[in-house]
Write a structure and sequence with these properties.
By secondary structure, the protein is α/β, with parallel strands linked by helices. The chain has 3 domains: 174 residues, Rossmann fold, CATH 3.40.50; 166 residues, TPP-binding domain (Rossmann fold), CATH 3.40.50; 181 residues, 3-Layer(aba) Sandwich (Rossmann fold), CATH 3.40.50.970. The chain contains 23 helices and 19 strands. The strands form 4 sheets. Strands 3-2-4-5-7-6 form a 6-stranded parallel sheet. β16, α20 and β17 form a beta-alpha-beta unit. Belongs to the TPP enzyme family. This is Glyoxylate carboligase. One of its GO terms (molecular function) is tartronate-semialdehyde synthase activity.
Length: 575
Amino acid sequence: MPKIPVMSAVVEVLKSEGVDIVYGCPGAAILPLYKAMEQDGGIAHLIVRHEEGATHMADGWSRTTGNVGVAIGTSGPAGTNMITGLYTAQADSVPIICVTGQAATSKLHQEAFQAVDIVEIARPVTKWAVQVKEAAQAPWIFREAFRRARSGRPGPVLIDLPIDVQKQLVEWDAEIDAPLPVTPVEPHAPRVERALDLLLEAERPLILAGGGVILADAHEELRELAELLQVPVQATLMGKGSFDEDHPLYAGMTGIQTSQRYGNASFLESDLVLALGARFGDRHTGELDVYREGRRFVHVDIDPTQIGKVFGPDLGVVSDTRLFLRAITDLARERGVTGAPGAWTERVRELKATLTRREDFDDTPIKAPRIYKEINEFYSSDTYFVTAIGLYQIWGGQHQKAPKPRHYQVCGQAGPLGWEIPAAIGVKTALARTEPDAEVVGIVGDYSFQFLVEELAVAAQYRIPFVLIMINNEYLGLIRMAEDHGGYAMEYEVDIHYDATGSDNVKIMEAYGCSGRRVLEPGEIRPALEWARKEAERTSRPVLVEIMIERESNTANGVRIDAMNEYEPLPEPTA
């Protein structure tokens, strides 16, 4: 077997695992890997301005393709800068691999320059964190990293590469090598039967589609089961896009923030919930005694440790979501079971038609729901959206429609500010081969925009076009609301303005070679979106539409921060 540089073997492994682009920043301790990428070719590389940005780009790429994204950094602070991205990927079950350089193994105990035990630092926020100690292990560790990232509940892996290990030769033949198999998690047949029995016994059942439906690419199977049995479907925030929100059986979102009024109401009237790949996060459940009262739960999850973590369900099923849906649908057909629209589906449709929130505001300053009305009407179902944390995440959950899976990307659990710009880069580059003309839109707040704004330079350098829609209330709206209405009776350090306007976001865009426009009136929103689309096409760079909205919004258009466990439908927001 031929001897080749160990990093060349690693590059061959990356290519065979489906990696066509990586995001990173070279440094002295990772240069052998970069040399191998230069010599061997086949993998594109974007040089980032901050290693956290690299992790979020890999994250956006992974959420879009369903494959394992890769971020690379050198030693020391490069790895510690990646921790936020690793945590984000772990929290949202996103498979990425972060590769870090490291000081020579002989120097690790001597506090060498930029030598830090990144494996121990990363261990709590990864599925696996490992340092390669022998060169011959490297190709196999990378193979195992991809297997672990994909297996069960997907998630992140960190691989640390000492510089001396990177410089060695190993015996490796790519011609006789292949990815390690991932074992499918099949459902246990008796539990599938019991799940169907419970579903058929219920008078008012709901299917709750979590992020696991999207991760398993099970949206078609979900629709098939729902239509066969005529069971209404709700989605969690991470499951948004798994079921067309215009479908007659769509029953909204339940929760204390990202929810619809009709979603909360229909959930409270249900008597059984079939939860698919959902974690029962606290922003979804609120007070558990209210959430659970009067209904039974069947919890299906690929990760057995998720079942019973928040509360014990009436039935737990360990399974890949798609395999479970196929099994229960086949079983229903074997039994000759079909459903028909009845009193329960009609009741859900009635709630959906009546318990709505206003969006047709013509007020100045602009009200946020009007923005989402324009977004829903202007962009097609093929558009890819990214959004992060804050009031705009709540408004997005309440108002924005997501008809297709993997087209609405949101960092749901960790919620790192600054995620949108690098994630949009990851999404757009993921589409470069399959959908080069697809529109990518990031919805961002004025504060989050500033956290990783330097990654605009990456998009400008590599000519990666996307549109940023900034919803700007000129201060930290969600934090201010929490201070004011969360029992603290304070408004402390929530104003980020140091002159009349604070940061001029349009000028920031221009400084990075991009374009921007500010919107003050509701009637300007649609023309600005049309301009942004054309400008992004013309320049092949990011374009900003900054929309100035009302500052004071004590109920956040239906969200009461001082009533986190409120499930009764809230009153219509006033004009």
